[in-house]
From TrEMBL:
Protein name (record): monoamine oxidase
Organism: Monoraphidium neglectum
InterPro entries xref list: Amino_oxidase (IPR002937), FAD/NAD-bd_sf (IPR036188), Flavin_MAO (IPR050703)
GO molecular function: monoamine oxidase activity
Domain Amine oxidase: 36-377
Gene3D superfamilies: FAD/NAD(P)-binding domain
Amino acid sequence: MEGPHWGAAAREWDAVDCKTQLESMCRSPGALREMLLFVQTVLAADPRQPSFLFLLKYIRAAGGLRALGDGDGGAQQWRLAGGAQQMAAGLAAAVAGAGGGEVRLSHIVESVAHSAYNSAAAQNHIECGSDEPGVYTVAGTVEGSGKPFSLTARRVVVAMPPPVWKQVAFDPQLPEDHRLLAESMVMGCVAKVLAIYPQRFWALEGEEADSSTGGGAGGADDEVVRDAPRRPPRRARGGAGGRRLEECGPVANLFPGDYGGRPALVGLVTGADARAFTALPEGRQRAAVLGQYAEYFGAPEAAEPELFVVKEWMSERFSGGCFGGLTPPGLLSRAGAAAAGRAAGGVHFAGSEAAARWVGYFEGALDAGLRAALEVLAALRPGLVGSAATSGGDGEGPAAAL
Ligand SMILES: Cc1cc2nc3c(=O)[nH]c(=O)nc-3n(C[C@H](O)[C@H](O)[C@H](O)COP(=O)(O)OP(=O)(O)OC[C@H]3O[C@@H](n4cnc5c(N)ncnc54)[C@H](O)[C@@H]3O)c2cc1C
């Protein structure tokens, strides 16, 4: 697993989708079911969508299969009390506090143009990644007011998922590998469902079923990071007759928690199920999820939340879905495993899809952001940062990505 994209079988693995490959590999129906559910819930994908090589790279970027699971040391171990947006808000405050930095929200970037475009030198600059000086004009409109804006920069960092690169007109256009990613990478599909209840009715792992009523499931709100609340047992204790959560309805992943001190269930509907679910009218979405909870927990009170909210991520204009971008069969082989993070002239790429570690996670966004920032520093202040500082851990240098 050190570098699945370098392996002799890489092209073969990239030519096939996850479902087909897993069906040919898993001898036990139980193992196959778990792996397909893993792809659906962790990548938020229909297992027929991403290539098997993409799955291997994704697992490798997290440090192994276990790290992506629910247990200790895994991706779900911690929860940010108060919400994940605090990370972005904290980074923005740090930029502002660092003397003269400015974060402009609601500025929709529509174009990134090199000053010397139309000259052969500019085209060469973008395609060959030369360090020839130049100025970029970044332009767009302010959301709400519609006012145009523009600014100039010697380097630009694009930290958006590749499928939304298409919304920006790059002049000269991006190299072919980047265009391939923008055109063909797809985002995962997620609908997030929040149900808030007056009282907790679910048992948590390790709890006796009959002690499950009353009290919130979460910890103190003033902690920045806390252990994620324990999850409900995988098997129902009541009316579901031992059926698994995903056999009772559309929610495939369930996180108990608290919302403003009130007990809450956060459910994720993922992959192809998310598309089918969000096509339903509101009333049927509600009935499907609450009916699932009532059956799974054997608790009729599940049908009576104080608040029920569905958030659909696929139609978000600036991400197009989540948790991250996926490559369908053949794309990694055509675009190159490292394309998403490879700079094009003075245009650098960050964002979780361009990370070497924890692709598709916040940690990946930080990893790629740091790498891109070091690339820019190395170019503009060569004395300050050595080129080694921008090298990724797997020997592909700063372009180690995807
Ligand atoms: C429901 C859900 C649950 C998740 N749970 C977890 C989790 O538990 N743990 C975890 O680690 N990760 C989780 N993720 C994934 C995590 O959110 C992403 O990995 C992370 O946000 C990626 O960060 P990023 O900076 O690469 O991209 P983004 O967060 O997508 O940031 C890109 C930014 O670019 C902006 N943008 C896009 N186009 C333009 C434009 N034209 N002009 C100006 N701005 C533009 C967008 O508005 C956005 O602010 C979850 C995601 C979702 C949706």
